[in-house]
Amino acid sequence: xxxxxxxxxxxxxxxxxxxTAAAHAAQGEAAxxxxxxxxxxxYTCLGCHGVENYKNAYPSYRxxxxxxxxxxxxxxxxxxxxxxxxxxxTMHAQAASMTDQDMLDIATYLQGGEPTKPxxxxxxxxxxxxxxxxxxxxxxxxxxxxxxxPKPPVLAGQHADYLExxxxxxxxxxxxxxxMGAMAAALKSDADVQQLAAYFASQPSPLATARHDQx
Length: 215
What we know:
By secondary structure, the chain is mainly α. The chain has a single domain (4-24, 32-201), classed as Orthogonal Bundle (Cytochrome Bc1 Complex, Chain D, domain 2). The protein has ten helices and two strands, in the order αααββααααααα. The protein has helices at 7-25, 35-41, 46-49, 71-83, 89-96, 100-111, 134-137, 160-171, 178-185, 190-201; strands at residues 55-56, 61-62. The chain has a two-stranded antiparallel ribbon. Strand 1 and strand 2 form a beta hairpin.
């Protein structure tokens, strides 16, 4: 089966995600995070996420840029590391030690104010593989205006090798997520993964490495 033959399955998965997201949004306003507390709590994360181009080992890839990422996404990701839906020994240990309030404070600090606003500007040529990503991530990886909760991550400007590793993990089932598993399964070759990751990494973005001196 080729990339195009998976579109019906992907559309169904995206629709399920949107229905679930709407249900979460209807639960009411979330608790508030404290960015000042979050900055202090993030101190133990700086050894990896506070260093420009710091690389994870085995496999080797740059750890993700977290500054200006959506707080709701960061909380969801931490919970996935905590409960094992994302396998990573160091991140599991970090997340397992955090309370819900710790996660909220850290995510609020990293987001740094209002969430990133989606844009429609595109740098370069959009590959065919990115078309099905647009429903949640936007055509350029900066997001969409639809009220998804938690918001999918900003992909624009993220490290290409991190995006590749994430897609590979969804593709082989090591990361557990029904929507992303279906999306990644449609990428039938390493070249597809690399092209998609390189495209989103090349887009204009507010994402940055979180430094200890950032307010």
